[in-house]
Design a protein that fits this description.
Dehydrogenase; 2 domains; 7-stranded mixed β-sheet; Gfo/Idh/MocA_Oxidoreductases; Rossmann fold; alpha/beta; GFO_IDH_MocA-like_dom; Gfo/Idh/MocA-like_OxRdtase_N; about 350 residues; Dihydrodipicolinate Reductase, domain 2
Length: about 350
């Protein structure tokens, strides 16, 4: 069997090393290398993964079947457009872009080249998410009245400083965390009609010389079905927290209520370094990457988020920032993510 050739384009994202470790461990995958413009980051990634650093043109000349884009968000467009021209399928970190214009350009470039664009939303693969989605869609809870989502974490800027800079990331905790739960709502069959949000910095983030960005937020969504949803999207966990954070979703319907914690399966490990929670649940990143490899081999993957899914979720995020700016609810356009 011919291995699937995969390349990483940009390695600034905190998930890049994990993706590289999983991909290089698969017997049916040939990770041909990675591209990265920042010299120190590129060198560190070579040391930690053993992969080859190549100039982007050389990497794409090797004709990868697929690429995984893990750069700073603002650079996604350049990498995705280059990969599309080279005929490679694309799995891009979320959010797809910092603007709807750039996100639509990614869709258009991949459609023109005849390759697929996918958004990295691994929580779709959580067994708890899959079970709750099946119950909602089967009507087990009756007519859904409300969703309550929580996505808290430690601020990721201590691993990658660019995450807390709007110029490279497009925003703060709202950009980082609204998108997962917005995608799950769409995945459950809902469509967002309007968005009202408060996205605010906290005192620790008003440091001289640092761009002011949101670290705490609460978003209220009106859905086309008549249900409402809330998303708590905060970097509220201290650096010493035993895991990165939480992703939880509660659903209330006319016939019952259910809730999930996508990362509930863990053990508490205590040693001289402190305490941490070691997860033992499903490998969500691995499941997502396996689906992407299926696509690269010419197959289909039912759970893999599409580029259109990524654009729709980004539309919700950007509407939240607009709402914070204007101080009122923002009605979403129906055109985002449409094929051209």
């Amino acid at each position: 069997m011919t291995p699937v050739r995969i390349a990483l384009l940009g390695v600034a994202h905190v998930h890049a090393e994990g993706y590289a470790a999983w991909l290089t461990g698969q017997p049916d995958v040939d990770v041909i290398g990675y591209a990265e413009a920042a010299p120190q980051l590129a060198a560190d990634f070579a040391d930690s993964t053993g992969l080859r650093l190549l100039p982007l043109p050389d990497l794409l000349t090797a004709r990868p079947h697929g690429v995984v884009v893990c750069s700073e968000t603002v650079h996604h467009r350049a990498y995705v457009e280059a990969a599309a021209r080279a005929g490679a399928h694309v799995l891009s970190e979320k959010p797809l872009a910092t603007t709807l214009e750039d996100a639509q350009a990614l869709l258009d470039a991949c459609a023109l080249a005849g390759v697929t664009l996918h958004t990295a939303v691994p929580v779709r693969y959580s067994p708890a998410v899959r079970h709750l989605r099946a119950q909602v869609q089967a009507g087990v809870l009756g007519n859904v009245l409300a969703y309550s989502g929580v996505n808290h974490s430690v601020s990721p800027d201590h691993e990658r400083a660019w995450f807390s800079g709007p110029a490279l990331a497009g925003g703060g905790a709202g950009m980082d965390h609204i998108i997962h739960l917005a995608d799950l709502l769409h995945h459950f069959g809902e469509r967002v009609q309007s968005v009202y949000a408060r996205l605010i910095p906290v005192p620790a983030w008003t440091i001289p010389g640092r761009e002011q960005t949101d670290a705490a937020g609460l978003v209220t969504l009106n859905l086309e079905s008549g249900a409402v949803a809330t998303i708590d999207c905060s970097w509220s966990r201290p650096r010493a927290y035993p895991r990165w954070g939480h992703l939880k979703l509660g659903v209330v319907g006319t016939a019952g209520m259910r809730s999930l914690d996508a990362f509930a399966e863990h053990l508490s490990v205590t040693n001289v370094q402190g305490r941490r929670w070691a997860g033992y649940g499903a490998d969500l990143n691995g499941a997502m990457l396996r689906d992407f490899l299926t696509v690269c081999g010419g197959g289909k993957a039912a759970l893999l988020a599409s580029g259109q899914d990524g654009v729709r979720a980004l539309q919700v995020v950007l509407a939240a920032y607009e709402s914070e700016g204007v101080g009122r609810a923002v009605v979403l356009s129906a055109e985002a993510g449409a094929a051209r």
